[in-house]
Design goal:
By secondary structure, the chain is mostly helical. It has eight helices and five strands, in the order αααααβββββααα. The strands form two sheets. The protein has a three-stranded antiparallel β-sheet with strand order 1-2-5, with no helix packed on it. β1 and β2 form a beta hairpin. α3 packs antiparallel against α4, α4 runs antiparallel to α6 and α4 crosses α8. The longest helix is centred in the N-terminal third of the chain and has 20 residues. It is globular. The model has no long low-confidence stretch (mean pLDDT about 90).
Length: about 200
Amino acid sequence: RRDLLATRSRRTGQKTLILLHGIFKLAVRQEWMTSNPVAHVERVGIRRRTEFAVLTVEEVMALARVAPTEQDAALVTVAAFTGLRLGELRALRWRDVAWSKRYVHVRRSYTGTGEKTPKSGKARSVPLSDPVARALDALSKREHFTGLDDRVFCSATGAVLDDGQIRDMFYAALEHAGIDRDRGTGKLLVFHDLRHTFGT
């Protein structure tokens, strides 16, 4: 629990402990174990925000400047200026970028089990603003993985990006850029807040 809360969000810690509790509870019920080793572990509470935490345009640009790679910079920029969810960014393909019509199709979302339709259950399109167009244009000039079926944001082998590594990059960039994660809301900024930033 201590390690989870030191390295991951409280929400991730909460979900992980709930899962572990359920696994061991089943093991006891099936008589595979005599006791549940996490039965008395203190639950992780989640404080709800009273308002959204968002970044300014200047802060988004500062994050992009300190991002470790061009792809990471583009990922932050696209997230903040399109409002795509993390799973949608991980599933985005080059064929989804409509350069001439100036929009991005959001057709799929990547979850831990594979790709599916977006959370809303239907595809949508979002505007291809100037910052997004510039970031994607620069990324489209990389040496590999620029075909229509290739992922826009991918690993060194063209595979889907690890969501934990994306979040770690985001938190490190916030720190490097000197951006306060608390924002006075009582809850630390998370990657999903880039979606809220777009909403403003």
